[in-house]
Write the structure tokens for this entry.
Amino acid sequence: MKKKVLSFLLACAMTLSLAACGDKTAGEAATAPKADGESAAEAGASELTDGKFAETRHITVEVYDRNNDGGSDPTNNAYTEYIKKGMLEKHNVEVEFVAIPRWTEVDEINTQLAAGTAPDVCVTYSYPTVKAYADMDAVIDMRPYIDNYKDELPNLWNWLGETNLYWNSDLNDGTTWAIEAKLANMNRVITFIRKDWLDKLGLKEPTTKEEFHDVLVAFKENADTLLGSDANKMVPYSVSYDVGWRAATLIESFLDPDISDKEYYVNGFDDRKICQNGTKDGVKLLNEWYNEGLMWKDFYLYGSGDSTEDDMMKAGYVGAFTHNWDYPWRNGEDSIAANLKRLVGDDAKYIAIDPFEDKKGGHNKFLAGPIDRKIFFPATNDEPLASMLYLDYISSPEVIEFLQVGEEGVTHNVLDDGGYEILAATGDAIQNSGMNIDYTITCNGLHLTNEDLTNKSLAHTYAGVDPQDILDADKIAKTDTRVGINVNVGDIEAETGAGDTLTAKRDTCFDNAVKAPTAEFDATWEAGLSDYLSSGGQDIIDERTEKWDSVYSSENIR
Amino acid sequence: MGKNKAFKAPKAKFDKVYFKRYYQLYLLLALPLIYLLIFKYVPMWYILIAFKKYSIVLPVHKMAWAKHNGMEFFIKAFKSKDFLVALRNTIMLNLKDLIVGFPVPIIFALILNELRVKRFKKVVQTITYMPHFLSWVVIYGLALQLFAPSTGLVNLFVEKLGGNSINFLGEPGNWVRTYIGLGIWQSFGWNSIIYLAAIAGISPDLYEAASVDGASRFQKMWHITLPGIRSTIIVLLIMALGNIIGSGFDRPFAMANPTVLEKAEVIATYVYKAGIKGSQFSLTAAVGLFQSVVNVFFLLGANWLSRKFGERGIW
């Protein structure tokens, strides 16, 4: 008897493993190429009545998982419920959210695309990723849907317009692998400093590099006064391993404010500007400060997504840093500002400053252009039309407003002048990302139903923060900016697959140069840069130059 | 097993009686065989990707052949400076690991074997093999707490004693030493288990006879214990050599930082960066295939050598 049971079990196990084998072939078949978008679009025109499908459709949508302390479940909270309900009512489409870890999003979405399990609506900050998969026919051309369903997609067209919808369109045949979300607020990085430390030492807010340096020195010399027994933990100016970003305003102040569009583009594959003329001088200054002991000594040891540096800011050890224009106030109760208040005292706070003057006396800041995340549909998407309707829904002003400011009394109060004041929400209504940008995938930055309301509310969108601090930061972030333009000269072959190896080389170059002994700075920088250039950087510059010359006739196109 | 004829398997004639009696054992054997077939042999078909232009939507046999008779990506890899650096680093790190790390568990097992107090021996063994269960991400976290130049415990101690803080993790040469050291720390306890088991298998008669003859402790270690575990050592050495240009991914990946990349980029992390993140699957399949082939040669070579010197080898 026992033997029979045993052999039965074994037989079961065998069948199971064979079945697993069978699944694999089924998976392969599912990734077979789809009919091209054009014919699919025409056939689908009759599918909608009043914007609604006759039968309920099902789509999956990517959402970033930021893994915040005390956050809500990114796939199931008050906002996902709102979206799910709205989509079902308006278009008869069922929406399911798929969480993708924010800090490893590119790796994660890559793996899922390769495995054929990516969500129907994908979002990423990396266009090269989209392009690489498009070259393997693994991404749907969105152009036919954008054009043929223009009437069904009024909100999307109103919000993004041709600029963002066609941003990535091919020069010749118009194929569009991804559309660009729009930056409602183009503010990028600015510099913050501890206001209470300045006051304690009787110092003014620095307005030039020299003054900034003097303030850092003063912080360091008075560490005992400012931090007491924690004096040795002081970091006057903090920069992470990603130097090119976290010292961006300093580095950019060394670039020529009148740089030509061509030069900026040709040397601009790396958005940390490693190849731009002037960057070296910026890094050299950082190197001087590093060797004077004014910077975080161990910055290069802590990788992407590590919270050590944030924790130092929260604990009050950091005097100044450069980051996203609203960084100290992000994340409500877990924000740097809120923690600082709790741990150090009521008067401890960061304020925005603009200390890095350029050679013309302004405060040159390069912005990326009105584009943000890239939205694309992988070839495994069986519901491109329903997915387009999703993008339309998520772009309607009312939906954006609700997602950004939530419900009255829960996430916001209405002020006397009509503006919204954001409250620290609890439970289900907690926004995991500032103003829910993870859900408003076509929009980054406060964008309410009318501009007046937006302006009145902006300063109140961060719970528990002095509105004047926000307004000051916003003003500085908007000073002396140069908006990026869309340079479309066709594919640059040398860029294919080069992004991540070059990014690693760039970090190596920046990090080694900053921490080098003063005498070795030049040699270290040159070694790092030449390694970057010989690993593909130079090929990209050459190809960009050649293609620019073949498409544009002048150095400037704005 | 050529020379060992003492144990003979029953004559495996396929007849009904035999099969009826033993079929369950064969069924049991079938499971691991199926596992090998599905997860090790079927995927080998995809080696073809190394010779073809990869496409995510086409099955392998329909993908177009790569240029230069399919060798395009091998040529590209060997022309790529980054791959050659990764190859050099992989070999250097593994060689150092082998030279420094291989004897440690053997010596440790020998020492442990000499301990008299059973309970103390057990405690030491447990403590030393514990780190084996820590992931490299956790170990790097610990390393940061201990070795970071300005906040690490070790460096604070060094500075309090009047020394200068040592950059264990941010200077390529030191980084390699830390890498090797942490690797040994993590694995020597675990790896010593197999030697301890081999030592336990040595007949106590030999030791008794040696004692009667007046052998000292070290003489017994040298003339009885070590020869007794020689074949185990050789087998493990062959396996280690078979992995000389292979490497785990998590150890170099978790421990690397931008400032030591020139020494820390190994084939596994290069494949991850250029292949998975940069979507160059054909290129990295070629690199992976090259890696496997070289490893097989090392394995065969080491095995051949060991047989030449009269040892059993691994088959």
About this structure: The first helix of chain A runs from residue 2 to 30.
